[in-house]
Amino acid sequence: MKITWLGHSGFRIEIEGAVLLVDPWLTGNPMFPAARRAEAIRGATHVLVTHGHGDHAGDAVAIAKDLGLPVVGIYDLISFWEGKESIEGIGMNKGGTVDLAGAKVTMVNACHSSSLGGKDGPIYAGHESGFMIAGEGHTIYVTGDTTVMADMGWMGEYFAPDIGILCAGGHYTMDMRMAAWAARKYFAFRTVIPCHYRTFPLLAQNADDLKAGLPGVQVIEPEVLDPITF
Questions:
Q1: Are the CB atoms for 181 and 212 separated by under 8 Å?
Q2: d(C-alpha 83, C-alpha 87), whole Å
Q3: Which helix (H) or strand (E) holds 109?
Q4: Most buried in the list 18, 132, 216, 219, measured by CB within 10 Å?
Q5: Quick one: CA dihedral 74, 169, 24, 62, positive or negative?
Q6: What digits encode the pLDDT tens for the residues 113-161?
Q7: Separation in Å, CA 7 to CA 72, 79, 170, 181, 212
Q8: Radius of gyration of the chain (CA)
Q9: d(Cα 42, Cα 207) in Å, to the nearest integer?
Q10: Which of 161, 62, 179, 187 is nearest to 105 (CA)?
């Protein structure tokens, strides 16, 4: 299994028979080298979107059209794209599970907001979400954009994820200290990978507080397009 950071909150996850592109914002992402786009998306089987904001969903439709891939996400947003953009979609909702080439993907709650940009203002894009991705003896919790929430309690107990991909940049999401607190209280991660940080000056530029708050947990600060193998 491999997890590769695409900058900001984007990840390429190679698990079971699937190659999942999660929140692949590539165009205009200051962390992502534009010349390596083909490398980042090569062999992908599905696109997963946690919510509609441009820094998460910005390249989902373009990649789906380029490679003929289905996009997986909240029913409202996927239905909108199926009608407007003529893409293949797998619309689901929180609590639902889909089998993506052997990887079991369950949509879970997040606490944020979700919209698409429109000429007259934001367009409703369904609810924000996260994903539990299970396969190859691991369960990965992708938080999407969120703050700490009580739902993490049952999610940690029920799914028992060993890998956490946690938004932790602050301002728009929980920060490093909050993410560490949530990880300690609700989960028993072996490995934590921070995201939604370093992209802009407004966000955290390192994961020092996350590491300090999680003694005994492997906290990996990812490098763009440098695979982490499990």
A1: no
A2: 8
A3: strand 103-109
A4: 219
A5: positive
A6: 999 998 888 989 999 999 999 999 999 999 999 999 999 999 999 999 9
A7: 20, 27, 16, 24, 23
A8: 16
A9: 29
A10: 161
Q: Provide the token pair at 114.
A: 């979700």
Phi and psi dihedrals of 63, rounded to 5? Answer: -65, -40
Q: How far is CA 17 from the centre of its chain?
A: 19
Beta strands 46-48 and 71-74: pairing type? parallel
Q: Which of 196, 219, 181 is nearest to 112 (CA)?
A: 196
Please give the Cα distance from 45 to 105 (Å, whole number): 14
Specify whether the CB–CB gap between 97 and 80 falls below 8 A. no
Q: Which amino acid is at 166?
A: L
**Each residue of 84-110: pLDDT tens digit?**
999 999 999 999 999 999 999 999 999
Q: Which amino acid is at 89?
A: G
Question: Are residues 168 and 196 in contact, defined by beta-carbon separation less than 8 angstroms?
Answer: yes
Q: Domains along the chain? A: 2-221 (3.60.15.10)
CA distance 77 to 29: 22
DSSP string, 32-46: S-GGGHHHHHTT--E
